[in-house]
Design brief:
single chain; about 80 residues; alpha+beta; 4 strands; globular
Length: about 80
């Protein structure tokens, strides 16, 4: 999942556990990464766990993390109305 292949994403919710699973499939297997929203003062925090797939180089993983950071910043801007 570190190469620029076509990746399919889907989400699964587990309301009892309070977790949304971000699932990524790229033909070499599926990664399931948990997300959780928790109260934080007057607002909320989104906790997202990103995992480095087996065989993924550190450089490729750093690139993916930067992509996730950009996506989360866009989400923050949408939620905060910036």
């Amino acid at each position: 999942m570190c190469s620029p292949l076509a990746v399919r994403f889907r989400y699964e919710a587990d309301p009892a556990a309070g977790v949304v699973w971000h699932c990524a499939e790229a033909g070499s297997g599926e990664l399931r990464m948990p997300m959780r929203i928790v109260r934080h003062g007057p607002g909320s925090l989104l906790l997202f766990t990103i995992q480095r797939p087996p065989g993924c180089s550190e450089a490729a993983f750093d690139e993916q993390r930067e992509w996730v950071d950009q996506e989360l910043a866009q989400l923050r801007d949408l939620v905060e109305g910036s």
